[in-house]
Design brief:
Elements: E1 2-6, E2 27-28, E3 31-32, H1 33-43, E4 48-53, H2 57-64, E5 73-78, H3 85-91, E6 101-105, E7 108-110, H4 114-123, E8 128-134, E9 143-146, E10 152-156, E11 168-176, H5 192-202, E12 207-211, E13 216-218, H6 222-233, E14 244-247, E15 250-252, E16 257-258, E17 263-264, E18 268-270, E19 275-276, E20 281-282, E21 286-288, E22 293-294, E23 299-301, E24 304-305, E25 310-311, E26 316-318, E27 321-322, E28 327-328, E29 333-334, E30 339-340, E31 345-346, E32 351-352, E33 357-358, E34 363-364, E35 369-370, E36 390-393, H7 400-412, E37 419-424, H8 428-443, E38 447-453, H9 456-462, E39 470-476, E40 483-489, H10 498-510, E41 524-525, H11 530-540, H12 544-550, E42 553-557, H13 567-573, E43 577-581, H14 592-609, E44 613-618, E45 623-627, E46 633-634, H15 636-650, E47 655-659, H16 665-672, E48 676-680, H17 684-693, E49 697-701, E50 707-708, H18 718-732, H19 736-741, E51 747-754, H20 757-769, E52 776-777, E53 782-785, E54 792-797, E55 803-810, H21 813-841
Parallel strand pairs: 1-4, 1-6, 4-5, 8-12, 15-18, 16-19, 17-20, 18-21, 19-22, 20-23, 21-24, 22-25, 23-26, 24-27, 25-28, 26-29, 27-30, 28-31, 29-32, 30-33, 31-34, 32-35, 37-38, 37-39, 38-41, 42-43, 42-44, 47-48, 47-49
Antiparallel strand pairs: 2-3, 6-11, 7-13, 8-11, 9-10, 14-15, 36-40, 39-40, 44-45, 45-46, 49-50, 51-55, 52-53, 53-54, 54-55
Helix pairs in contact: 7-8, 7-10, 9-11, 12-18, 15-16, 15-18
């Protein structure tokens, strides 16, 4: 059998290790990952290997040459012009693959039983067999579900946290029949998981999953790289050591001198031609490459040191990586998780702080304390985007430097000369961040339509009218006044997709930003009549006469948080009486406690003025809480039900869109009006996309304080909803209190349970496996439905925190309370078992 070794990866998340090496050539136990894979193939009598190369191809060719020194026959296929993707590069060598063949990733460490996998493939008469394994945290990998015959029924490539439905993942090792390549187009980029396997699934081709026993580690980031080294030292994975084992757990190469006073704990690896000085202390877990020199009195706690490094007297290294030819001078400290790139120099008594990365060929002056990644900026974090946009502590995580780089990264994903809008709230910190983003965008040749301080509903409304490629909005986070939230929108005003977020992250982490020439630098324009465009669209969507005849009195509380608030002017124009509270733009951002106090104040004002209702508008025009004529707040599930009831009364047989966790009162109301309910994933982008893609949608609600009227624009808009509410109350001759009294009485409760990241995938698989398939919905998280009375329980992993959310819904309060108790106990017990198992394994 012939094997295809996928060795084209550049390993951007392993930088700076991979600045001058392709990822398969990064050393584990002083030998490239690719060499360990070839040794595994040999153990299973696979000696014909075709390596597909793209990034720095000569490094691998020069090392392995024809493969004879390693006991195999090596052939190389180089993607010259552009990467063809995991499947496209295999399609490119289809003429070499005339029989069953194996594809294996070049950047993972494993000791799987490949022989057993091949026998399984032949026994099942499979066209494609995926080698699978189970991992604690499957968010980085393709998740797979198989039936009792091990036939693949469902998979999802790199899910978000809330999409996890199993902890069984694709390892990037496949056994394929050559005819499956006929499904792929020639000379085009294509991917196994995104293109070929979904196609095979749709064609009902026999595709199976072989759940392998043994060790597997995808060396995709620095933590995994260190973990793989330590696991190999402690024999958690079967790898071949390149040196003689002098004593149990201590492997030492040839021509290496170790001073008699040095203390070395096993397990440890020390390469060829090393010199280790007096009184050096090397703790268990250390890996030292070939030709390394270590001065006296050095202290090493599990470092990984590559070939040719020079380490001075009294140097202290802690669980760090010192790359090829780097030099660390006397009394310097390199702390846990840090990386010193190839040929870099760390001066005497300098300190590299934890998890700081130094790119190749850099110099750190003597006595310096380095707290940020040298030259390349703050790129240590794994992801920029969270559940909604990019967010972080104002002027700590989201700094001007960060924003410049983020703007350049986003702009680099667009064509030169593209135009985008930039808008913000009124805060000074938002102005600072916005100007930095604009600088980054201009530097890569993007033209700016600067909307300045503008409510986000206004920005979303005008974006589709301005011939722009998208937009950015910067504001203080609605729920955290010390945080900044940066949201990216597409040309329709919808939050950008996860795939575009990944492209921006890729450009950011790779430092892959173009630089425009002087004459190509972007321009900044300040469009006029932005507010007028919104007001015109706003007005067209309303029955003005109804509002004018209502003579409504409404109290609006802006909680110091809305820029360009046009609502009072619009209501005044329509003949309604708007009383405005807390409209100043100069006050600091409000905390949740402050907003609650203002909500109480709003209720008192509504009562005193005998107003029809009050509304608290926040989040720069996106969120609202209502107060009825008696001063009682209406929010959350009740607010969602009220808005849907009023919209479906106005538009019978309409469609409403809500997230998966919203109360079943939505369905009960829809049945009253012969309407339809669409449920989405629990994130704003999914809600916006569903409102736009489905016909006859009259309202989208996030289950709390945000509502979308898609005919106006694709985002949340508290200002328009307030005017629409006046119109509907007038036409329907109702009050908020009367509408509320007619709503279904549904019991809907939520509870939060701690759940470590490493347990979430296993928990979701456990829930799927322990409930009948016909009772499950896997839109987002795992929803267990009962076939009566709208009873259900939802277990939804949080996208940002190590917790899961439990929701229970029923017409029966006792059932809800009992179900929450039951599933809370089940989740807690499962988490405790998994943690105990992890501790015992350690």
């Amino acid at each position: 059998m012939r094997a295809v070794l996928m060795a084209g990866g550049s390993g951007t998340r392993l930088r700076p290790l991979t600045c001058d090496l392709p990822k398969p050539m990064v050393p584990i136990l002083n030998r490239p990952i690719a060499e360990h894979i070839i040794n595994l193939l040999k153990r299973h009598q696979i000696t014909e290997v075709v390596a597909t190369l793209h990034y720095l191809p000569d490094v691998m060719r020069d090392y392995f040459q024809d493969g004879s020194d390693f006991g195999v026959q090596m052939t190389y296929a180089v993607e010259e012009d552009q990467p063809l993707g995991t499947a496209g590069c295999v399609k490119n060598i289809a003429e070499l693959l005339d029989d069953t063949f194996l594809v294996i990733s070049g950047d993972s460490i494993t000791d799987f039983d490949l022989t057993g996998a091949i026998e399984f493939h032949k026994q099942k008469k499979s066209k494609a067999t995926l080698v699978l394994t189970r991992v604690p945290n499957p968010i980085e990998f393709g998740v797979v579900i198989t039936d009792e015959e091990n036939r693949i029924r469902r998979f999802l490539e790199k899910p978000s946290t809330s999409e996890i439905f199993s902890d069984t993942v694709n390892t990037g090792t496949y056994i394929l029949e050559p005819e499956v390549l006929e499904y792929l187009p020639a000379n085009q980029e294509s991917d196994f998981s995104k293109d070929l396997f979904p196609l095979l699934l749709s064609k009902n081709e026999p595709m199976y999953g072989y759940i392998a026993q043994g060790y597997w580690c995808d060396v995709g980031h620095l933590d995994a790289y260190r973990e793989a080294q330590y696991d190999a030292l402690y024999n958690k994975v079967k790898l071949d050591f390149a040196y003689k084992e002098l004593s149990p757990g201590l492997w030492v190469g040839q021509n290496t001198f170790i001073d008699p006073t040095a203390q070395i704990e096993a397990p440890a690896v020390i390469g060829d031609n090393c010199r280790i000085g007096a009184r050096v202390q090397i703790e268990a877990g250390s890996v030292i490459g070939d030709n390394v020199t270590i001065g006296s009195d050095a202290n090493f706690k599990r470092p990984i040191i590559w070939n040719g490094a020079i380490l001075g007297d009294e140097v202290q290294l802690s669980a760090c990586v010192i790359c090829r030819g780097a030099r660390v001078d006397r009394r310097s400290h390199v702390l846990e998780g840090a990386v010193v790139g190839s040929l870099s120099t760390v001066g005497e008594e300098a300190q590299i702080s934890p998890f700081v990365r130094v790119w190749p060929s850099k110099k750190i002056e003597s006595g310096a304390i380095l707290n940020i990644n040298l030259i390349w900026g703050n790129t240590a974090q794994r992801n920029l985007f969270g559940q909604r946009g990019v967010q972080g502590l104002a002027n700590i995580d989201i700094t001007p430097e960060f924003a410049v780089k983020l703007g350049a990264a986003y702009g680099s994903t667009l064509k030169p000369g593209s135009r985008i809008t930039v808008s913000r709230d009124q805060r000074n910190v938002s102005r600072m961040v916005t100007r930095s983003l604009i600088a980054g965008l201009m530097s890569v040749g993007i033209d700016i339509q600067n909307l300045d301080a503008t409510a986000i509903p206004i920005a979303r409304t005008v974006i589709p009218t301005m011939s722009v490629s998208g937009g950015i909005h910067v504001r203080v986070h609605p729920d955290r006044p010390d945080y900044i939230l940066i949201e990216f929108m597409d040309a329709k005003g919808i939050n950008i997709t996860k795939s575009l977020e990944k492209k921006i992250e890729g450009a950011y982490f790779k430092e892959d930003m173009r630089r425009a020439q002087t004459h190509e630098i972007g321009d900044v324009a300040y469009p006029s009549q932005v507010m007028d465009r919104y007001c015109t669209a706003f007005e067209k969507m309303l029955h003005i006469d109804s509002i004018r005849n209502s003579r409504a009195k409404v109290v609006i509380d802006y909680v110091y948080a809305v820029s360009g608030a046009v609502l009072p002017q619009m209501l005044d124009k329509f003949g309604a009486d708007a009383v405005v509270l807390n409209a100043s733009l100069n006050k600091a951002a409000m905390s949740a406690t402050d907003r609650e106090a203002l909500l109480t104040q709003l209720g008192h004002v509504v009562e005193a003025l005998k107003a029809n209702f009050g509304v608290q508008v926040s989040a720069n025009g996106e969120q609202l809480i209502l107060v009825d004529e008696s001063g009682i707040p209406i929010r959350g599930e009740m607010l969602t039900a009220l808005m849907i009831d009023m919209m479906l009364t106005a538009h019978p047989r309409g469609t409403v869109v809500v997230p998966v966790h919203a109360s079943s009162a939505v369905e009960q109301i829809a049945r009253r009006h012969d309407g339809k309910v669409i449920r989405t994933k629990a994130n704003p982008t999914a809600l916006m996309e569903a409102c736009q893609k489905n016909s006859n949608v009259v309202l989208g609600g996030n289950g709390d304080t945000g509502f979308i009227v898609p005919q106006l624009h694709p985002g949340f808009d508290a200002m328009f909803c307030t005017a629409k509410l006046i119109e509907m109350l007038t036409i329907q001759e109702r009050s908020l209190a009367s509408v509320r009294s007619e709503l279904p009485r549904v019991v809907h409760k939520a509870y939060t349970v701690r759940c470590p990241w490493t347990v979430k995938g296993a928990l979701m698989r456990y829930l799927v496996e322990t409930h009948p398939a016909q009772n499950l919905e896997l839109v987002d998280g795992v929803k267990i439905c009962q076939p009566y009375d709208d009873n259900w329980v939802l277990v939804l992993p949080d996208a940002s925190e190590p917790i899961v959310h439990l929701y229970a819904n029923s017409n029966d309060r006792d059932w809800v309370d009992e179900s929450l108790r039951e599933y809370r106990a089940r989740v807690q017990a499962f988490v405790e078992r998994e943690e105990e198992q992890m501790v015992s394994e350690v």
